[in-house]
Amino acid sequence: SFFHTVLENSGHCGSMVDNNLRITNWNRKLGCKCQYKHIVDWCGCSPNDFKPSDFHRFQLDAYLFGPFPQGTPGLNSYWENVYDEPDGVASLSDTLLTYYHSFTRMGLVRAAASLQGNPNDHSCRYFPMGHPVSVHLYFHLDQFQGYLVKHHATNLATSKLEIMETWVAPKKNFELTTPPGSTFSRLQFAEVSFIYLLLGGFPVR
């Protein structure tokens, strides 16, 4: 009821569908007693709060048509925006800003490396400009997969400012004791790197 009241008194009041097709978790187990019980099934009951165990109640499509088929794009993956240019760099801590700038520079270095050391080829050589434009996190099966950082860079071949994207993802490194055939061949030391660049910067069209 709170959200309905707020919507009706906001600038979105003209776009709100004004009917009773709203999901409510009525507490019927406590019993519903009033003179209109033969007309409505919620009479005399107070609604419960929604809890994680009730989330399936929100899936109207799944209730009507069954679960999505396997292989449906985006079924188990999602993007989370953690920074956008209109937010302003003041919304980022110094640590995060340093990370994001590092990621962009790594992407530009990776792009230049694709030229195989040709000093006369500037087609993939860029100079970083300004702060990141946006940062998104990618999750698959609720597991973090990496960062997508959008940023500005000057193309050294054309001297034009371009918008680039750099994709970075975590990589774990494990070291086993040697020789592996000894009695102590089990894992004794694990080293985890923070970020590994999978794909360098590339222009956004």
UniProtKB/TrEMBL annotation:
Q: Which residues does the UniProt record annotate as the domain Xylosyltransferase C-terminal?
A: 61-193
Q: What is its pathway? A: Glycan metabolism; chondroitin sulfate biosynthesis; Glycan metabolism; heparan sulfate biosynthesis
Record's bilayer topology term: Single-pass type II membrane protein
Q: Which EC numbers does the record give?
A: 2.4.2.26
Q: Where does this chain mainly localize?
A: Golgi
Chemical reaction(s) catalysed? UDP-alpha-D-xylose + L-seryl-[protein] = 3-O-(beta-D-xylosyl)-L-seryl-[protein] + UDP + H(+)
This protein's source sits in the domain of life called Eukaryota
Which Pfam families does the protein's record reference? Branch, Xylo_C
Keyword line: Disulfide bond, Glycoprotein, Glycosyltransferase, Golgi apparatus, Membrane, Metal-binding, Transferase
- Per the record's keyword annotation, is Glycoprotein included, yes or no? yes
Q: Does the keyword Glycoprotein apply?
A: yes
* Subcellular location as annotated: Golgi apparatus membrane
* Cofactors required: a divalent metal cation
If you read the UniProt record, what top EC class would you report for this enzyme, in one word? transferase
Family the entry assigns: Belongs to the glycosyltransferase 14 family. XylT subfamily.
Q: How does it assemble?
A: Monomer.
- Name of the molecule in the record: Xylosyltransferase 1
> Which species expresses this protein natively?
Goodea atripinnis
| Gene name per UniProt | XYLT1_2
